[in-house]
Amino acid sequence: xxxxxxxxxxxxxxxxxxxxxxxxxxxxxxxxxxxxxxxxxxxxxxxxxxxxxxxxxxxxxxxxxxxxxxxxxxxxxxxxxxxxxxxxxxxxxxxxxxxxxxxxxxxxxxxxxxxxxxxxxxxxx
Length: 125
Hints:
With 125 residues, the chain is of the alpha+beta class.
């Protein structure tokens, strides 16, 4: 996924505000699901939700206003209720900006863990 950095993404030092990467990861995961033929909205409407249970981020190099970022997202391990997403973000010079891992847990509308539907597991793996 490509993302251009605008002024509102930056902090007073002119670099991307660290928490904005969480939004980029969320958007990238949603796009990943869509590319695999799975709609987050349709899953939620049917009672299958995902919550972030863990987030790890290593900030390697600053991104700044005007940069064009390439957000690369893949799936690592998939277990009964968990999906591990791996993210790497590079700038237009192929400089590694951020490396991250996000763990999602599948839950029902009651917010208790539930198994990932088999069809979804096959699509995203």
